[in-house]
Design brief:
Shape: globular
Structural class: alpha+beta
Distance between the termini: 69 Å
Largest sheet: 9 strands, antiparallel
Helix content: 10-25%
Number of helices: 13
């Protein structure tokens, strides 16, 4: 049922005042609000949060701050209605380092790099002061004190959105924190509509829990987080809402492609945009549903930015904090039903640190054969993931998109933990968990003669034939990407891709770039033109 703009707005005001929001599920531990919330299940964000001419001008929940001033609570009216629970990590003692006058003191978090921190603050990396020897491109030791210089007058950072930490980094990715979580078992115990949902993917029918698991694994997104957001928006996990069987948009994105899988894929993309964008220092501003913007707090962590970006995209600025941080908001619901994410993060530890290094990898084809680098660093998996993948095509003269007679080979020894739908995943630590340690992801490997799951492969062992299977492809090739502890890695980031001594580099545009080794350069060409050929040493 559609409502006019005035009625929508009045309903929203009522919802905020009563601390009950559209799509806010009453968790099993809080049954008192179940009736009130269930009545709102059919009203998705795209249905009644759409701005209309009769709606008042939105107030952006930001405060005017300079980087050196004490932070102030944002949106005091909403905060008075919705006190934010203490759910973040406990503070740790900072090293005794004196930062020069005029500079802002910053203490690094796990996963920080100098370029990323500089991007968060809007300054040039070479102007950031360090007080101990650190890498200028690699990961900083956690707890490193930096001096952030005064801002360039042309950089506007007056409007900074100050929020409590939302989620630790390990809650976003399909990493070590997901090892003991079984989507199918959890969904069956929850008993909601999700277990009765079915969807066809490539002419194969999958159950709702299988769809969640598929998206979580493929995109390397935490399945707990996907389940929680699905429940928060639809009540499909614990409940059986009216109309669920005909609801094409259970999360509420309303995209052209409907269905649970696509809704979850969009969720994963939004989380990735915030997570990896913050990791690289390029994503620094939230854009809310109605279009207003706010600069992110430079001291945030990637996991918090990921979920903040997701909710900013879904909700208007004046309701954003209630839906994410309020007593009936997502973070409280998440902790009630899935346990404390901060306790899990403490048990898992940091996903990356300054001591991580790439294991030895070779080019993923046999020596003595000519291959072409058809694409330089580009999206590792889906929108939002870093430029972590490169493409290789055999030079054989075969027809476009033919299953090549050439073989893709193991770039390192490991256990095949996934083989199907064009993908082979090799777990280099051999523990059988795709969310831990180093994992190599091959894409576009044909079903014909592809290596089976569960097989241990040695270096250079044949694993499959390049093809056009899975994804968008105009020519036979294979796509190679890397993950570490569930995180997609940029090919030229703090852990650069190195194959047989060839180190990846990226040019300005996606798919542009190549590899260098000493004075030798191989530059990508989609047509396989001269200069893109690369050989394995004999």
């Amino acid at each position: 049922m559609k409502m006019d703009g005035k009625l929508r707005y009045l309903l929203l005001i009522c919802l905020v005042i009563t601390l009950v929001g559209c799509g806010m599920p009453a968790s099993q531990s809080n049954p008192a609000t179940q009736t009130a919330v269930s009545a709102l299940r059919t009203l998705k964000s795209y249905d009644f949060l759409t701005p209309t001419a009769s709606d008042p001008t939105p107030t952006s929940p930001i405060s005017t701050l300079s980087p050196n001033e004490p932070t102030a609570q944002v949106n005091p009216v909403l905060t008075a209605l919705v006190p934010q629970p203490t759910i973040g990590p406990t503070a740790t003692a900072q090293p005794e380092v004196t930062v020069p006058a005029g500079h802002t003191r910053y203490v690094s978090l796990a996963g920080d790099t100098l370029p990323a921190v500089a991007g968060h603050f809007g300054v040039e990396a070479d102007r950031v002061l360090t007080f101990a020897p650190v890498s200028r491109t690699g990961y900083l030791p956690k707890g490193t004190v930096l001096g952030i210089p005064p801002l360039d007058p042309e950089v506007e950072l007056e409007d900074i959105l100050e929020l409590q930490p939302a989620l630790p980094d390990s809650e976003i990715v399909y990493g070590p924190g997901t090892a003991d979580f079984d989507v199918i078992v959890f969904a069956e115990k929850a008993g909601g509509f999700l277990t009765r949902y079915n969807e066809n993917v490539d002419s194969i029918s999958y159950s709702g829990p299988q769809i969640v698991q598929m998206v979580a694994r493929d995109t390397s997104t935490n399945p707990r987080l996907l389940l929680a957001f699905l429940e928060f928006q639809s009540n499909w996990v614990f409940g059986n809402p009216a109309g669920a069987a005909t609801d094409k948009y259970p999360i509420g994105f309303g995209a052209a492609d409907s269905g649970l899988r696509n809704e979850l894929l969009i969720t994963a993309k939004l989380l990735a945009q915030g997570f990896y964008g913050w990791r690289s220092g390029t994503f620094t501003t939230l854009t809310f549903f109605e279009g207003s913007k706010a600069r992110l707090d430079p001291t945030s962590n990637a996991g918090s930015v990921a979920v903040q970006h997701l909710f900013a995209t879904m909700y208007r600025s004046q309701y954003f904090q209630a839906y994410l941080y309020g007593p009936e908001g997502f973070l409280a619901f998440y902790q009630d039903n899935f346990g404390s994410p901060w306790v899990r993060a403490s048990a898992v530890g940091d996903l990356v640190d300054e001591h991580v290094s790439q294991p030895d990898l070779v080019l993923p084809f046999l020596p003595g054969l000519r291959w072409s680098l058809t694409a330089g660093p580009h999206t590792a998996w889906h929108t939002g993931t870093p430029r972590g993948a490169v493409d290789f095509a055999p030079v054989t003269g075969e027809p476009p998109c033919a299953v090549s007679a050439a073989w893709a080979t193991a770039a390192a020894p490991g256990l095949v933990v996934r083989s199907g739908d064009g993908v082979v995943a090799i777990d280099l630590d051999g523990d059988g968990d795709e969310g831990t340690g180093w994992v190599l992801i091959y894409l576009h490997l044909a079903e014909k003669e592809r290596i089976a799951q569960g097989v241990w492969v040695e270096l250079d062992e044949k694993i499959g034939h390049p093809s056009c299977e899975r994804g968008n492809s105009t020519g036979t090739h294979m796509h190679l990407a890397r993950k570490y502890n569930g995180q997609w890695l940029a090919a030229t980031g703090p852990l650069p891709m190195v194959l047989d001594g060839w180190t990846a580099f990226a040019d300005a545009g996606y798919y542009q770039g190549g590899f260098t080794r000493g004075s030798d350069v191989v530059r990508a060409s989609s047509s396989g033109m001269s200069g893109s050929s690369i050989f394995r040493d004999k």
